[in-house]
Amino acid sequence: HRQLKDFPDGFLWGAASAAYQVEGAWNADGKGESVWDVFTREPGRTFKGSNGEVAVDHYHRYAEDVALMAEMGMKAYRFSVSWPRIFPDGRGTPNEAGLAFYDRLIDALLANGIEPVLTLYHWDLPQALQAEYGGWEDRRIIADFAHYCVTLFQRFGGKVKYWVSLNEQNYNLTNAYQLGTHPPAVQDRKRFFCANHHAFLANATMIAAFRQHVPQGQIGPSFAYSPAYPASSAPADMLAFENAEEFTNYWWLDTYCFGRYPQAALAHLQAAGEAPDILPGDEAILRNGRPDFIGVNYYQTLTFTENSLDGVTMQRINTTGQKGTTPASGVPGLYKTAPNPNLTTTNWDWSIDPTGLRIGLRRLASRYALPLMITENGLGEFDQLEHGKVHDSYRIDYLRSHLHACREAITDGVDLIGYCAWSFTDILSWLNGYQKRYGFVYIDRDETDAKTLQRIPKDSFYWYQGVIANNGADV
Ligand code: BG6
């Protein structure tokens, strides 16, 4: 039994959130509409029609939330800025009241010794840009996104060191342009790869600008990383696994880190007429946007098996919380998901696999030789408030086992700089309302009733407080 290394000094023990999921105040102080403000008003889009108009009212209660973070001993807080709060029409002159809110939040964090980790984009695109030119499907998004980001670099670059560029470009755009479950609810692979190409160009363009404006800072994308497993050692399953790795992981990670698409996937898409249009100059832009670290959002591994040419296609994900209701999902001729009999799952059929986190961190460290930051990891479950308490021992077990896997990965040589659990307080799940909770702090509200919005620390809050206090020595 090998001695485990300690978490490094200065490790960023944190938790995370996203603007749309916590802020509320959807039209306060000059904020414009985001695509999510519009999408959630359409019938049948979300669980019980839930939306972020109030969310957990972090916009007005941020001081109380930061006080709880300080009580917990948190060293880092990852949050996102709402683009339409800064630019109600997507571009032009910034809205000073929107910028001032983030000044107040960042200053409160710094006053409590909490490192802000600022996500530039967590899916809440200004509706004005979606309406004007189709958002990510048009190259004009590249300049508008850069203008928005540079505005934040100039305003906050002196006090924010860690920046996340795009949150889960892979997951968000797959939902938006393949599954049709996020706005603009399209199901078209050609349009998917086009929007995705523009997001890569926007990401790289903005990282190049970051070098000028925040030379001391660190920036990287947050990637929804589900490391792939083969369902068996049969060569057909091994090939399906390789295909899945290339199409669902390396398509993004190689492009961020190496500035080029992986070749087998690109050849396949070109033959299928689904490849993005790569214009002269695009490759140079992509190569110039290498990140400083990779943000890893880890929830589960996925296991793959072969898929016939007339086989399974992409499927809607489980939004019911009923185990065993998620159908297989895949791309005909390439791969499809298969259950992994070695793993248990959550009520939403997400596999629980701490060893998969160790494996994934090692794969990324070996392939890209960059520092890694876990920007999300956590357990979404039904929580019960009983006599003013939430006994979430299942969440503690999940987090402890995943932190143990982090420590094993550090011992294996991975340069892991931080761990932001998802999430700090309970928050609005994009599609699942408040039935699926992740927080250390319970929020008294449900989908249809904002109730008291009272903050109630769960058992996991006090457990994580202890973990931070001794720098993870017991996990
Ligand atoms: C990630 C997102 O995909 O997973 C978060 O970055 C999201 O914003 C989280 O809330 C959990 O997703 P869900 O569907 O369980 O709420």
From TrEMBL:
**Alphabetized UniProt keyword annotations:** Glycosidase, Hydrolase
Does the record's keyword annotation contain Iron? Answer: no
Q: What is this protein called?
A: Aryl-phospho-beta-D-glucosidase BglC
Q: Which residues cross the membrane?
A: none
Q: Which InterPro entries match?
A: GH, GH_1_N_CS, Glyco_hydro_1
UniProt family annotation: Belongs to the glycosyl hydrolase 1 family.
Please name the Pfam families in this protein's record. Answer: Glyco_hydro_1
EC id: 3.2.1.86
Do the record's keywords include Hydrolase? yes
- The record lists the organism as Amantichitinum ursilacus
A single Gene Ontology MF term assigned here is: 6-phospho-beta-glucosidase activity
Which processes are annotated in GO (biological process)?
A: carbohydrate catabolic process
Protein origin, superkingdom: Bacteria
What are the record's GO terms for cellular component? cytosol
